[in-house]
Amino acid sequence: MRPHSVLRAALDIRWTPSSQIPPTFLLPWRAQLHQSAHSHQFQTELPAQPSSQPPPSIPIPSPIPSTRPAAAPASPSSMPLPRSSGKPLVLSKSLQQLLPHLSAQKPHYISAHIHRFPYLLTQGDTLRLPFHMHGVSPGDVLRLNRASLLGSRDYTLKAGTNSTENYDGKRTGEPNYLDDRLFECRVRVVGVDSGPMVEEIKTKRRQRKEKHVRSKHRYTVLRVMEVKVKGLEELERGAEQLILQ
Amino acid sequence: MPVQGIRTVATNQNGLGAFIVQCKRLDLHYCDWYGSSRGMNSFLTSELLPRLSRMHPQVSIHISPRPNKHPVLRAHYINGREKAVCVRNLEKEQIMQKCELLVQSQGGKNRKIRGRNVLSENESVRGIWSPFHGGIKDV
Known about the structure:
heterodimer; B: elongated; structural constituent of ribosome (chain B); Ribosomal_mL43 (chain B); ribonucleoprotein (chain B); Large ribosomal subunit protein mL43 (chain B)
């Protein structure tokens, strides 16, 4: 039995509506994390959510406030659903054969995408994003659900055209992503870094005036908490629709 | 000679398991007489200060006068460094933003990082490539 389910069974928080769940700071933080495979459970497990929602273009589910106890509860309909919810999870024969080897061999690496850009991550890495992510504060746990590569020392799972979302039909230039039910990648927001003040001098021709442009950027720093490849049994337990080819 | 272990220093992996806010102390300095401290004084008497302390219970907030000087925010971090921001002539909302900025910071220097977004302490997962193992091709 997994520690998650033991914890849930012990605390009996699985199917209680959000009004009866104790406040967030009383729960262990692991209890606030969600499993993306259960979309309906995903909604009931999160007792609270920050009032400032990230825009839907960010390919990350809503941050889980683990350090801020005073957050307003919101209706579950406003919660963004996992990307691949509703579609059946298709596992090919080779994937069924090789996925146990991949999930058993640790450590794993993942090429996770944020705003389409890939970042090669392992557990414990520090990721300084090249932008300031709004709507999150230090201590929040995010789950990255877009990845194009997933691997260990000997095995690599690469996003192909089958059983993945193909963005090329929309002509947006998005890469192919793996199904987000196959893995779990969690990062924690550690802080907000700042670059140095940069001063650029702009000039025009034939005049002595110089324009000084000053800029100082802020960057969100993340720490990779876990990179996990799910095994076949876990996928069978979690997915509502599983097609074995 | 006995076998000696390799001396290493534990690396900081804050946030991997537990998460500790890096700012440990925030000093707010004000002046009763200077006009540049008007926004600071209204910040201290407004409800923004209790809201700040409620949002960040891990940070100890100290308020002290600094007569005949501009108002200053000074944050102390776990790594031993400190950051100071002069808040002269700022409104109370701007001072709140500066406080948030100091609390959310990690206390390091403001460095420019070119292209190195991921910093890793781990060994390479797939190992180092060797020309003598696997995939040897004849020309």
